[in-house]
Fold Multiple EGF-like-domains 8.
Amino acid sequence: VVGVPMNESVAHAVAAVGGRVYVSGGFSGVALGRMAVLTVPADPCLVFPGPEACNRSGASCSWCHGSCLSADAAERLGCPPGAAACFPTPRSADECRRLRTCSECLARHPRAMSPGLG
C-alpha cells in the first residue's frame, strides 16, 4: 500500500480513465459518498524507490538499470531475476515450464476460479 489505505467496504463503482482508477461510493454499514482517484503505474513495481525495497517486496520485482521493474520486464532487459522471481508459485513446475513468463504462470482464467467449474 502506498499512501493512506481506504476503509474496508464493498459495492463500489469503479472506472479506469486515462491511466487513473476512480473508485466511488461503497457500503460499510452505511452508504458511502466518497470518490477516490488512484494513479497506477504501468508497472506496479515502479512504486518501490530503491533496490532494497524493490528486492524485498515479495512482488516479483527486480532492481534493473536504476529502477524497480517486474521480473518479466527486467528479464527482457537482460537483468537477473530478483529474490522472488515467481512468487507465489500457484502451479506445479511442470505446468509452468511451457509458459514463457511468471505472469503467464500466475494467471488464471476467471472461469477456472468459479466454484464448480474445476
